[in-house]
Amino acid sequence: MKFAENNRISHRQLYRQMVLAFLAPFLLCLPGENRVTGISGIVGVAAALVLLVIYSFFLRRLTPWYTDPIKTFGAAGGRIIGVFFLSYVALTGAYLLDLMDELVPAVLITGIPGIVISFLAAAVCSFGTHKGMQRRGRMAEVSGGLLLGGVLLMMVLCLWQITPEYFTEMTEASVLQGKEVLKSCYGILAAFSGIGLLPFLLKDVEKRGTAGKPVVLGIVTLGGILMGMLVLIPSVLGWQRFRNEAYPVLPLLAGADLPGNVLARFDVLWMGFLLYSLLFALGSLFHYGHRILDRTRMGSGKLWLPAVIFGLSLIKFQGTGIRQIFDFYLSRIFVPGLLLIQVFMALRGKRRRQKKVALAAGLCFVVFFSGCAAIEPEKRMYPLALGVNSEESEFSLIYGMPDLPQATGQEKQEESGSEAVLSITGSDFYEIERIYDRSQEKYLDMSHLQVIIMGDRLLEGEGWKIFMEYLKEEPFVGENVYIFRTEDPEAVLSRESGGTSAGEYLTGLLENRLPSQQKDGVTLRQAYHQWYESGALVEIPRIIMENGELQVYLEKS
């Protein structure tokens, strides 16, 4: 059945709501940084999926006890159960807000504090969550398939970025260990523990007798995507980087291109999908919170529940925040407590009821963010090339700015294109940013950067490592950027090449050839990999000016 009536949702809508609510938190928070990695992680995920499928059938049998906890367990017992589930809703919501507080300003939006983003998310996602299920089901019907298809498409496009050596490196470095398998398995079970809230809503699902099928399909879909990512990410980024990145799914697509280089930074679109899923998950938690409060006769929570969740997201005490609190709570308190409560329900549930309670996950309003924030394009500077060098204790950044009318083909016939070069020197790269902000009227947008040119003096010492650390904190610098070295980066960037900017000219030297004649440059992603593996810089091409022309030598220097 594709669509449901009488304020119920169909099986397909139930399945898509599960995917929407779990997908982004799983992809962002489970892989990498010694959490779920390697062969042990994949085996652990597979084992957890088997247990979760079995658990889902057990969970459906408990739905009558969720229908009216007050009637079943008395006023005190029912409200204790309600508070237990409500604590999960509040802490999980705070965790998601804190995640958005960190990632959205760093990856998508500039100039807006993270606390403002989390406040707006809490306010918007809590609006209307007490209303009927059918509206929310239709929302998932429209957007769930689009999100899932988009994520799968992005994974397929990333297959062309796989480096066979990196895949071999992963298989050799990751060893199947029982302890790691158990750790990964329990981590996945804890992450999936949110499905323990499903019985609060299952009565709103059409054909409740077979509602377990979409639940199982949702579990298998999410687990399959996660296992695919555990293979894909280290095969693209390298094993050491995968293990050390906090959110390795974000740099996964930072250097990816659509076929034909139509859109070089479509990682912004990928992050848009993840943000949509995060907001849907947050709205679902508010919806569950309203249902729990209603079933346990504790009011509606329309105002105070969003305020509590937002307040919890701001917790910071001696280096401990909501992330650390939530990790401890989820694994040590909620999962064991959930099993104890459900075993207690099962022991009391020998007299079966025919009523089943329903699942629905809700989505409220989604704000479409983009990397342009609130700054108009004409008020931005778009360097296509970036030079960097050092002199004693100071660093220099040289920005190559193309003439925008010429670069976009809008110049008049008598106009000639040129590249403006802006050089700023400071004791470190952050001081250079402050100098730029004080002295330049336009916002610096690095999302169109094509090449980075390092000076020989920078490469002679440890300066290049400091520069790499700086680049890692610049989310709009794509990892498909080509890297070169030369004696004087400013001279290279100042050199006019037939009205073409240095970024376009150097990129063209590598790419604007027949397939058999194309040259293999070195990208920022390759430099990151070598740096993570051995702490050294990969051999990069050298630029030399001969007879007034720029020439690139790809031989190892």
Automatic annotation (TrEMBL):
Entry keyword Transmembrane: yes
Keywords assigned: Germination, Membrane, Transmembrane, Transmembrane helix, Transport
A Pfam family reported for this protein in Swiss-Prot or TrEMBL: Spore_permease
Entry membrane topology: Multi-pass membrane protein
Protein biosynthesis recorded as keyword: no
Ranges that cross the membrane: 41-59, 80-97, 103-127, 139-162, 182-202, 214-237, 268-289, 301-319, 325-345, 357-376
Domain Spore germination protein N-terminal, chain residue ranges per copy: 376-542
Subcellular location: Membrane
Annotated family: Belongs to the amino acid-polyamine-organocation (APC) superfamily. Spore germination protein (SGP) (TC 2.A.3.9) family.
Name of this chain's protein: Spore germination protein N-terminal domain-containing protein
